[in-house]
């Protein structure tokens, strides 16, 4: 029977998945898709590697993450009846300071990862619930956790430190950084797209999805990143505030009498693009809106990206390439145009037509720094790690 590897990527608004042919080192894609609307009106959608739809089906109203996962495995088996799912690789957002690489999950590992739930409340509990519900369905299945934080674990100490007493650092209160599977994929794919010499230089990648962060890559390694201890820091996001004076939190608690749960709800769910605009966390809706609040939300979003670009360029000591990726980075040409306009200080000159066509290169020949649009593929990166662990296990 042929082997397949199922990959699950639980983002803050969806479960994305991929089914890969585990018999080949290059891991060809069999099918991929997502379940959207978990908690409201869930829908399972998948297409094959040529983007032809395979399934488009509504799931039970209000179904849980676990039930959605079970529906997915059922689909994988029905569709690929001649295939055995040998392993499931999961995106797990937080690995803390214990996990610096992919790991096969067992009860001990799950126990350690549970402790990190408060550090990634939008993601970690869903990631772990998925692993647990699959373990209950299929106890012998190899399940592998691949961490968003792992790619950043070699950050220089100064980039990880907060200006707090050292005992807090020792206790794990430090910058971890996220979206590491996306940045790892970029480090791997960029030489073939932007050229080996440029990719081996100083590159800033902006991962702009529902969550958003930026990373400074030097010689393909992360040396600085905008997210921190949690996935709240850095850029404003769909519903998260990004960088914020910690004095605001103290003020809300002491003067407004807000509990920590209420502050968490505000900062994780009611801030960012949604909070500022009062309209939506979806950039498509904001770009289509005439409301002043939508315009202000977009203005702050691009302002903050430009500001972080400056900071990361300073850390890198210069800039050889700038790359946009993830939902907004790959699809929102007006946002890229606004960022590039603000980044004229770096000698960036936008090629409008190329930008409208989504690149891959979106700057003119005389731009001092080339800017690229490169689709990310966190799932494929997870599949690679999972395959390596499966090989170790045999
Ligand atoms: N054509 C588009 N124009 C503008 N924004 C888009 C477009 N397509 C997708 N997006 C944005 O991308 C976001 C989702 O990005 P994605 O990387 O899939 O997020 P996540 O993995 O965090 O769920 C959506 O919320 C939406 O704002
Ligand atoms: C870490 C994070 O913010 O992930 P996502 O963008 O998938 O929400
Ligand atoms: Mg994502």
UniProtKB/TrEMBL annotation:
Protein residues bound to substrate: 91
Pathway where it operates: Metabolic intermediate biosynthesis; acetyl-CoA biosynthesis; acetyl-CoA from acetate: step 1/2
Keywords associated with the record: ATP-binding, Cytoplasm, Kinase, Magnesium, Metal-binding, Nucleotide-binding, Transferase
Reaction equations catalysed: acetate + ATP = acetyl phosphate + ADP
UniProt main location, coarse: cytoplasm
GO CC entries: cytosol
Catalytic residues in the record: 148 (proton donor/acceptor)
Top-level division of the source organism's lineage: Bacteria
Site entry (Transition state stabilizer), positions: 179, 240
Coiled coil: none
Cofactor detail note: Mg(2+). Can also accept Mn(2+).
Residue sites binding ATP per the record: 16, 207-211, 282-284, 327-331
GO biological process: acetate metabolic process; acetyl-CoA biosynthetic process
Compartments reported by the entry: Cytoplasm
EC annotation from Swiss-Prot or TrEMBL: 2.7.2.1
Family membership: Belongs to the acetokinase family.
Assembly and binders: Homodimer.
Name the UniProt record assigns to this protein: Acetate kinase
Gene that encodes it: ackA
């Amino acid at each position: 029977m042929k082997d397949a590897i199922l990959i699950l990527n639980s983002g803050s608004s969806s479960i994305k998945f991929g089914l890969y042919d585990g018999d080949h080192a290059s891991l060809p894609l069999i099918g991929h898709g997502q379940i959207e609307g978990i908690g409201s009106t869930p829908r399972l959608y998948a297409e094959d590697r040529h983007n032809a739809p395979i399934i488009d089906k509504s799931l039970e109203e209000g179904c849980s993450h676990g039930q959605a996962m079970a529906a997915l495995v059922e689909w994988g088996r029905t569709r690929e009846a001649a295939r055995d799912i040998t392993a499931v690789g999961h995106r797990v957002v937080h690995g803390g300071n214990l996990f610096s690489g992919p790991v096969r999950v067992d009860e001990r590992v799950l126990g350690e990862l549970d402790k990190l739930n408060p550090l990634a409340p939008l993601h970690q509990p869903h990631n772990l619930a998925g692993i647990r519900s699959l373990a209950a369905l299929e106890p012998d299945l190899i399940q592998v956790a691949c961490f968003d934080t792992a790619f950043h674990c070699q950050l220089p100490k100064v980039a990880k430190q907060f200006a707090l007493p050292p005992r807090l650092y020792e206790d794990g209160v430090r910058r971890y950084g996220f979206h590491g599977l996306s940045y790892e994929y970029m480090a791997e794919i960029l030489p073939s797209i932007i050229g080996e010499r440029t990719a081996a230089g100083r590159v800033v990648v902006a991962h702009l999805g529902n969550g958003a962060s930026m990373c400074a890559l030097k010689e393909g390694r992360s040396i600085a990143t905008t997210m921190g201890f949690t996935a709240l820091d850095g850029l404003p996001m769909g519903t998260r505030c990004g960088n914020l004076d910690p004095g605001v939190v103290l003020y809300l608690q002491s003067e407004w009498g807000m509990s920590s749960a209420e502050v968490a709800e505000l900062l994780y769910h009611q801030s960012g693009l949604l909070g500022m605009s009062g309209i939506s966390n979806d950039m498509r809706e904001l770009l289509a809106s005439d409301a002043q609040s939508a315009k202000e939300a977009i203005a702050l979003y691009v302002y903050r990206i430009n500001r972080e670009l400056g900071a990361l360029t300073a850390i890198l000591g210069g800039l050889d390439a700038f790359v946009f990726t993830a939902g907004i980075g790959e699809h929102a040409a007006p946002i890229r145009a606004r960022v590039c306009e603000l980044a004229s200080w770096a000698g960036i000159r936008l090629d409008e037509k190329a930008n409208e066509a989504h690149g891959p290169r979106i700057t003119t020949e005389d731009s001092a720094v080339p800017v690229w649009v490169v689709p990310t593929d966190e799932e494929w990166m997870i599949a690679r790690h999972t395959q390596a662990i499966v090989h170790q296990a045999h």
